[in-house]
Amino acid sequence: MKLYHGTKITNLQIENHMKSRYGFTAFFGALERDLAIKYAYHSFKKLGTGYLYSFEAPKPTEIINFEGKISHSLVFRNLIYKLQKENHKSILIENIIDYPTEELALYTTNTILIIFNLELITNLKMIGKY
Question: Radius of gyration over alpha carbons of the chain, in Å?
Answer without folding.
Answer: 14
